[in-house]
Fold each of these.
Amino acid sequence: MSWIAADWGTSRLRLWHLSAADELLDARSSDEGMGGLAPAEFEPTLRRLAAGWEATTVLTCGMAGAKQGWAEAPYRPLPCPPLGPGLTAAPAEGWTVRLIPGLSQAKPADVMRGEETAIAGWLAANPGWDGVICLPGSHSKWAEVSAGEVVSFRTFLTGELFAAIAGHTVLRHSVGGDEIDAAAFDEALSEALSRPEQLAARLFSIRAEGLLSGLPAAAARGRLSGLLIGAELAAARPWWLGREVALIGAGPLTALYARALAAQAVPTRSAESDPLTLAGLVTAKRLMEGRS
Amino acid sequence: MSWIAADWGTSRLRLWHLSAADELLDARSSDEGMGGLAPAEFEPTLRRLAAGWEATTVLTCGMAGAKQGWAEAPYRPLPCPPLGPGLTAAPAEGWTVRLIPGLSQAKPADVMRGEETAIAGWLAANPGWDGVICLPGSHSKWAEVSAGEVVSFRTFLTGELFAAIAGHTVLRHSVGGDEIDAAAFDEALSEALSRPEQLAARLFSIRAEGLLSGLPAAAARGRLSGLLIGAELAAARPWWLGREVALIGAGPLTALYARALAAQAVPTRSAESDPLTLAGLVTAKRLMEGRS
């Protein structure tokens, strides 16, 4: 029987249709993320996006398992392998839907939902790998993996901070557009790494330089991005200093992290997150069936 | 002739009606701040709020003089006294309207509009005073005053950061209500002062503790406030270490700054900002007329 693998995040839903032998048959995505859905809307949303696929078994990771999601999947406490036994059933008439639990860390308090599946995909592609994984995003994650287990991780609000500051403070007048000036990014990154405590003052300077000397929007945006990623790297220093970092992500944001880490002489290996998440979902399916 | 003193900020407008001898006759305020007004709307807004007052001379400080305000008043570069000659005229049929210029600092780039008038009011009430002034707010300011001149200042985005994070990130689920738990504030303040670079990670911990251990909203709000004010104090350390600080502001926010500085054994003298701004406007009027 074919089946459906799903990555149901806060803002996006990705579906893959796979054969019984886990070969990719089709893929679809939509912006119907968990953030915009009431619990009763998950089932019809899934049926609509999967229309025409002959599959009634669904395995999903991500925010569909959050408290405000389709059904609440518990967190598995560290240390533990990224995937394990124990899936949560979600209600869907005539279908079998299973949610992958997230991971939790007691101290410092932290949680993840979805990234554990990408980490499992990374380990499936790199058996026996030990080291540090960084997953840039709205909530960037740094995770330490050892002997097949996630032993610690830390989440940074960096991506959401960028959006909140660029959209909802006086800096919105300064950072318009999508372009990032690389030199401004590099300079701000270096400033933030050397004096991370100056963040709130440096943020206002972006506005002041716009008023006093006409700082261009791409430079202002580069500065904001450099300050925030620099602050994250300053806090995450023990994770990357003298290490190789596996960067799991996609697009311009992950490229900025690679650039920032390269500037600290940190070697990185990059991988796209979607294929790794799919590989993790396939691993979870095999675990579920005792095939692993 | 009686006249009108105005403090036209981003979100609020305050008007005072004063006699020719600068005695207070009446006061009014509204939420028609500069942020919600087009340039042509300033004059009718003023006439409506001042209806019935027999005065046609208006002296205003604040964001009415911003580029997007009533008329652009230039910045005066540091070092300089908080008020000086050179006012900008704004168009108003049959009225005399004058805007007080803001102050600018070249390096680090910084600007203020309105706080210079409160600082002038503080100096009018404390002649010959030298020292550090902190003005908490959406854009907190720290200013060094010496021999009647503002010699340097620094703006922190702290208040706007609080609003943007509390309203537009995942923390909005955690920090509802208005209450601030004082113990949570104190603990977060101390954490932020000792390791300010951990800000972005500590912010996400507020959410994680809400999910994992049901952190109450007042504690989450106290934590967020303590982290952000602590980050500001960490960056502003050279301004307050071993000094007395004049705190100019109002309400619960200024009380939090007083509490935070007291925890660092920094003596503070507090003053309400509205009366000081009015005193500064009166000083500016006398300067304008050569009466000072």
Note: Chain A touches chain B through 46 residues (CB under 8 Å).
Amino acid sequence: MSREVRVAIAGGSGYTGGELLRLLLFHPHVQVQQITSERFAGKPVTKVHPNLRKLTPLKFDKIGDLQPCDLLFLCLPHGETANRWDDFVRLAPKVIDLSADFRLNDAAAYRHAYKKHHPRPDLLQRFVYGIPELHRDEIRDADYVASAGCNATATILGLYPLYRAGVVDPERTVVEVKVGSSEAGNRANEGSHHPERSNCLRSFSPTGHRHVAEITQELSFGSKIQVHFSATAVDMVRGALATSHVFLNQGLEEKDVWKIYREHYAAEPFVRIVKERDGIYRYPEPKLLAGTNFCDVGFERDPASDRVVVISAIDNLMKGSAGQAVQALNLMCGFEERTALEFPGLHPV
Amino acid sequence: MSREVRVAIAGGSGYTGGELLRLLLFHPHVQVQQITSERFAGKPVTKVHPNLRKLTPLKFDKIGDLQPCDLLFLCLPHGETANRWDDFVRLAPKVIDLSADFRLNDAAAYRHAYKKHHPRPDLLQRFVYGIPELHRDEIRDADYVASAGCNATATILGLYPLYRAGVVDPERTVVEVKVGSSEAGNRANEGSHHPERSNCLRSFSPTGHRHVAEITQELSFGSKIQVHFSATAVDMVRGALATSHVFLNQGLEEKDVWKIYREHYAAEPFVRIVKERDGIYRYPEPKLLAGTNFCDVGFERDPASDRVVVISAIDNLMKGSAGQAVQALNLMCGFEERTALEFPGLHPV
Amino acid sequence: MSREVRVAIAGGSGYTGGELLRLLLFHPHVQVQQITSERFAGKPVTKVHPNLRKLTPLKFDKIGDLQPCDLLFLCLPHGETANRWDDFVRLAPKVIDLSADFRLNDAAAYRHAYKKHHPRPDLLQRFVYGIPELHRDEIRDADYVASAGCNATATILGLYPLYRAGVVDPERTVVEVKVGSSEAGNRANEGSHHPERSNCLRSFSPTGHRHVAEITQELSFGSKIQVHFSATAVDMVRGALATSHVFLNQGLEEKDVWKIYREHYAAEPFVRIVKERDGIYRYPEPKLLAGTNFCDVGFERDPASDRVVVISAIDNLMKGSAGQAVQALNLMCGFEERTALEFPGLHPV
Amino acid sequence: MSREVRVAIAGGSGYTGGELLRLLLFHPHVQVQQITSERFAGKPVTKVHPNLRKLTPLKFDKIGDLQPCDLLFLCLPHGETANRWDDFVRLAPKVIDLSADFRLNDAAAYRHAYKKHHPRPDLLQRFVYGIPELHRDEIRDADYVASAGCNATATILGLYPLYRAGVVDPERTVVEVKVGSSEAGNRANEGSHHPERSNCLRSFSPTGHRHVAEITQELSFGSKIQVHFSATAVDMVRGALATSHVFLNQGLEEKDVWKIYREHYAAEPFVRIVKERDGIYRYPEPKLLAGTNFCDVGFERDPASDRVVVISAIDNLMKGSAGQAVQALNLMCGFEERTALEFPGLHPV
């Protein structure tokens, strides 16, 4: 089959860029025309993405050498997409941005979360927030998509059905996300040094995590909500698990909660409701999801209170980043939504 | 110096028994007279506690062969202490029980948590709950001490000062504990099989954890409280980290919270307040605590709400079990409280 | 495309069976007709292979209910294939056996390695040893294939070119294989208990490993050779790394060794020669290979002696087992050799 | 008891310096007078050694501010001890150097291993190589001791009895060492970045490891020997395991080998011969040794050849570095050899 869509990846030496490349090389309708890295320009991509050895002859280009293409992925440091937008927009009619620049559609919310004025507030309304389960039709019609943050993705997909149904006390939710080390990118630092990062169980954002702004945006439906969010780093490379404690504002039983989740997710190709009575894998777990685009969602109704504990798991580099972006590409280009995203995950691993 | 206190350990082939033995062999005032294991009776203790090779010639005895001693440690499966109490009480004037049998002082609370009637409700009031930071004087005078559950210990030590000070909304606290695999003991099962347990991030008690009963008992101070508790297993052997989200019922600033913690813990030999502005180890972390009897406690005041996130870390086999028990022995026998518990922990590890 | 080959998997609840199923569900020309498990008969395969949730409605059958098919995979405990051969042979014209029963073509070698008489020496010559890089044409024509042992596969693929070329002292080679925990299968035992198996670096076969018989068979080319083999378990789930120390019997330089490897492997779809001057991944490493069918091979010529250190890495469940078996299926059925085996591996993971 | 020996640690912010400090703070006869770090001068040592919180008020000094003391530990980058020797020698009558500068007593061997001329060949004979099991009496009388390399320590202690007994083919030994990440020190780099270093099984010195020079020096006893050495990094923080394949030059049975090891090591306080018929921990393993000064040594006689596989394990920061240095201090100062080194290790961990 001919590869009808030509794409380029700007900022392709990081983990997200590598993951995009891995997926797109096997996408039957896509041709990766260029991938950029200032640091590794001229070198084979396998220098930094060694898993792709023998699979591609691609070399890194400089970002200034990008040629026009059909769809441009931007995997640049936060701030770069906005700052260089006028250059990028000339290169491609469709853009998927994987940075945080255009996830929020409100300049005040951006200022609050990122402690600075948004450099291009004029563009905020032109990007669609990239979680297909919430914005499928808008993504289909979008020119510009902003892929969601990984922790935000896990949290939102876990909580969305309950918030959408309006059954939750909007100010009491507490979310604890546990994350692997790949979330912080591929640059070594003191805290990522193996002897320090190994065996860790490290609170890194007890309060003030930036993804809260995205979560609030997507779950508020016009009302004021408050999500109490914390994040802890664990000794794992890939994966994010959100444990969300929500408090019901009405007397729902377990089967009612089930029904709400089924209604929202039964037809979703990449969301699985995981809730079993026995066995090892009764609740969602990132271990099963490495390399996949699934978000597994489960829950437990606390019989001793009005609490529901929602558990949602993703691979942060996939459903939390590159996989979500390819899913958006599939929608934007009219391909079957699962194309290039069918890897089922390994067990055990 | 003569070893004036003769102790015995019943149920000494498990991880808790091994840890007790490790500590007591180096205690200058204690002689380990006997240690029992039905399964390994007659075999050297180093068969199951290989870290003690070349350090002790002790062999396991059968529990029926226990001789009188000064202090008896019971590390038996839950239920055994209560069921066989009349045998044990004849052997020693002082007993430290590391099971869950006598942690609760209320038979109704026991029935609610353990789903059965307590076999010996007559004894409930005779045991002191074994966390020295809460019950030091009572432990000094006690004949019988019930060591606290590991998750309960981490949670209680984190929350006690705020609850004691009465500054917390008593029904909103959410606690998320992350634990290593040694918590589940030394018997292999399907879920502890390395290929399944490795790389896990596994919810095992989203609701209904039994330790909630202990936490509630120790933090309620006569009022009704509700602690919303969940537990997640991580890929670590030793260690427990409690992330507790409490909501203030009055307008405290960070320095006020500091003051509360300092007042309670500044003089404690085994509680450290950990809260730094920079560096890798800004908050408490079990990684630094393996083998130690410390509970590290830190917190962060959320400027965006009335939340305080309290972070508390222990080694579940030490401060959460054997170390706590030896600390109790030191108090009960009039030894310096830190005796045999001075190991500072390793970095890195 | 129609799925023209109907297969069945006998003994499908183990890790190898699960991995076969994962691959075959995405094989465009194969239909998995049945998969058996005595223990889980009647239950969905996702009960034990949770990564396949939402991807297949298959349930386990009992082995006695197997229907005729085109190709039968046998993933039974060692000994079962031979003992029940007369039953199996009636079910399918082609069989791929993943046990150790028919890897050796000499009854005396079997007796020496497995300490018992082979129950069906009459069949030994009817099986082809399943490493395609050594026996591609024979496998194409074979009815019965015996997949190689995982450690044997890593070792043989690393050493084959040098032994084939006759440049090695045949009695001095020392091989040290490091392996993950999935090699030992999915049954929990005392040694696989996470607190014991985690952080391990455990010699489990310093001498006497059974795979030596396969290695010797495949590398001897009619001469007597001796391979000094040891194996060490490491804290990893998937993966095997063989570090082989061979001693040259003639004065080859590095470029000569290169040439030998290139001649043998340049055209191989699943062998990559990995040998870089800088970067993190200069030599083969299983970390990059999880889920892939690659064997990466590298080497270093010791300038201080006549030693060459050969390093070869595989995923033990893939190239070391299920992937190798699917590669054989592709050859036996005339499909493109890479079909269903194209997953490139993840980085990082 | 008074702390009669005043010591200082130059270069104390690294892992080795931290480990020395941890040990010496609990040494009953030693007072740590100063510890230096250019980078952290003026800051509390707990800034970089957080395990020591609440245990010491020490701050880092600059190296230029060192005052005279009784014994000086040097934990500086390789080359610094030799280059600045004239400054250091004025500060203390006894020096223990933990760098590689004075391990070799032959300038030509140094040049060969380190690819440069030794800057102070005049001093080479004044240092005693710091492994007490080989040089106890010399260390007792020494002013200057050079602590051995960690991989060299594990290898030498494993092989010494056999080489000393002269029962080994001197040119055939192959050694494969597996090491944790703390060996490479506390500076972050691309290869130590957690997503890259985690799950690794990485050959880093297939040939040409510098420690071979030390091994050769200590095992040759006047004859020419050749040790074929490789090293592989594993996903572990502390620990080194040497698997050494030696070939006997005479017909020894297992009990003869036993006898040789027992003769050398039965009286050693820090060497344990580990060789059991069953159980999980049949051979030496670093997992049991974290924080201890033990070297565990075991072996297996290959019945199929003249090979003996020797397995030796240490904690690289302890017996392989700081622990060995404190053992030397104890000898040099006339203290009981085990003082401050009695920690037995944790199980499980």
Note: Residues 5-148+319-333 of chain B form a domain with the Rossmann fold fold (CATH 3.40.50.720).
Amino acid sequence: MNEQESGSLGVVIPLEESKNKLASIKPLVDLTRADMERVNQLILSKAGSDVQMIPEVANHLISSGGKRLRPMLTLAAASLFDYRGDNHIKLATSVEFMHTATLLHDDVVDESDLRRGKSTARMIWGNQASVLVGDFLLGQAFRMMVDVGSLDALDVLSSAACVIAEGEVLQLSVAKNMETTEDDYLSVIRAKTAALFAAAAEVGPIVAEAGRSGRNALKSYGMNLGLAFQLVDDALDYGGKAADLGKNVGDDFREGKITLPVILAYRRGTEDERAFWRDAIEAGNSSDANLEKALGLITKYGTLADTIGRAIHYGTIARDALAPLPDTVWKSALMEVIDFCIERVN
Amino acid sequence: MNEQESGSLGVVIPLEESKNKLASIKPLVDLTRADMERVNQLILSKAGSDVQMIPEVANHLISSGGKRLRPMLTLAAASLFDYRGDNHIKLATSVEFMHTATLLHDDVVDESDLRRGKSTARMIWGNQASVLVGDFLLGQAFRMMVDVGSLDALDVLSSAACVIAEGEVLQLSVAKNMETTEDDYLSVIRAKTAALFAAAAEVGPIVAEAGRSGRNALKSYGMNLGLAFQLVDDALDYGGKAADLGKNVGDDFREGKITLPVILAYRRGTEDERAFWRDAIEAGNSSDANLEKALGLITKYGTLADTIGRAIHYGTIARDALAPLPDTVWKSALMEVIDFCIERVN
């Protein structure tokens, strides 16, 4: 499908209050700019190794232009509680390394060729290097956490590491199974995406030695923001501007990945349509013609709009999680990120 | 090659003192039996997950009959310093999980079909599950360390995790390169094997709150024991009893892995023989006929005996590392493990 078609998704987002301008990540980027420079330096330094292949592989992914949303969350969450030390820099870098390690392993697991419009590391250096450099970055992440010395932060982040891996395995075991329910799907994205957002946000108040209610607020914010983020990502796979995102429209379809737009279309479909989905996803008949037909069914049942609707639902929970905290520029920037994540779809 | 041939290696081990009986791991096994039962229970419990595939994959490897040498080292190293608490159980389990995670990832990286005589997890559940369950076990290992709450133990084990991954990448980058020196090879096995032995031993005195000299002694013991262990392992690949070990003789040869028996045979060979090694290892002509020829050259230049000789060298350093410590049954069991690791070759 060409970009014009895929870009003409035209989902109407029922924002609670109508706005003249789109939400932006810019306030968060501006507020964390100085700290993020230090994070970026630490990333480069900790991805270094005498073993030449390690910085090569790591920098390929690190320099590929991700937004670095997760470490920004950690920095902002610490600053939200007036943190003045240096440890949030190390924790933010740990979070980004955990994410990068996951991406390296994911590309091997998903057999992906492209990420953010560039060849994946596994296509250039092979699966072997991707697995091992991922392990190295995960090890470096833990070393930085240990260096910070907060057992609470270590607890939150090591638990997240387990949950993420568990979620990926769960995803593997529901893959290509059209009987997957929305609840199964939610369990997967809660574990594989939202858990790291939650941990990234929670270690902010931890390092700032805020109390339990602050930790819970940021954890809930991160968790629900992560759910919204992944829901939108999964919608974009069936309708976003592939070129902008460096993704191919229909990647999930071709991999037989079960995401909400497909789950809803399957459940709402006729018996014939369900047979089509089983043939396409379970039997792997994911030709371009079948992708066109899948997009038609997704449009017919309005499942992209409903997927975005679910994202808005979780975004609202994230918003209310932060609501009781004092109004500061940090809070307002974190609030705007919720809308930004959802409005990416346009 | 049949087992009789491969078993007739006949390397004479020049032990410093002649002995009537072979060294055994039995004293260590007997001394740690009660604690190892608790470790085994913890292994089963921490490899559990609601995601069914995780315990399946983990138990496949965990139940496959490894000796569990590394966790026994941790237990014995703690008991050597009169440790009376419970935390050594968790640390020993963490060490075994780190090892298991490494094996799962190694099998993917090496594309191995067999481990200890059984199909590898990746042959049964695929590379994907092997990568992800490895990640899960690594995460669980860190959670148990965090639970123990010793930042020193966390530091030692997280640093080991990095070094191990670094060593695996280094191994990848020297793979199939016949110009690899003995020093390059030593760097690889120091990182990929000996570092975890060293960490496993060092966390014993850490948890027992022994002083710096106790930590250093056990770290040095573990490091040198690990070097000896890997050297013997690499010798066995060209001459051990494959059936006993669950390995195929010549696996390393077929994978183009550069180990000391090959490095020495290459360096001591004629120009023609060096051309043969380059063809076999670098160009991948690892037919059975070429394996026979390789074994002939290894015999011609006595490189298995010399590889074992290097193992004895490191074994002696391990022995001297422990020497100043009080004579106890624990020390004597740890000493005997050194000889056991080396004498496996017969």
Note: The radius of gyration of chain A is 20 Å.
